[in-house]
Specification:
Length: about 140
């Protein structure tokens, strides 16, 4: 399990907010690199945050474990970001059930479930730009 990543946190002070980047998961350890890179970028661009990556299956930690790690650090507001391009069964059905269980288990914590990243117009525009533009440094 990867430790909670924290940005701009004063010694001994609890982070103001927690973010969980939630993805499907994979047995392939290389699959996790982009998730971890997003977590690192969040930390570089923000202060007072604790960030965890969590997975639905095939990887650890799962969502409850990642949230427990944030709660142990004193976080009382947790934003869950589904890192799904498509809004399939996992995002539509499985994730809301997991979040409802978290809310029931931790009534003093504010759990915010954001829409899947694939529904965000900014990501759609970036992906379209990437499809059209040649990657720099490839010589193609």
């Amino acid at each position: 399990m990867t430790p909670t990543l924290v940005s701009g946190e004063a010694a001994g002070a609890a982070p103001l907010r927690g973010i969980v980047l939630f993805a499907h998961g994979s047995r392939d350890p290389l699959w996790h690199r982009p998730m971890q890179a997003v977590a690192q970028r969040v930390l570089q661009n923000s202060t007072g945050l604790a960030v965890e990556c969590a997975y639905l299956e095939l990887s650890t930690p799962d969502l409850p474990t990642a949230c427990q790690g944030l709660l142990a650090r004193g976080v009382q507001t947790i934003t869950i970001i589904p890192m799904f391009l498509g809004v399939g069964k996992h995002a539509r059905e499985d994730l809301p059930v997991l979040v409802a269980a978290l809310r029931a288990s931790h009534p003093g914590t504010d759990f915010e479930l954001q829409p899947a990243v694939g529904e965000d117009a900014r990501l759609i525009a970036l992906l379209a730009d990437m499809a059209v533009d040649r990657p720099q440094g490839t010589g193609q």
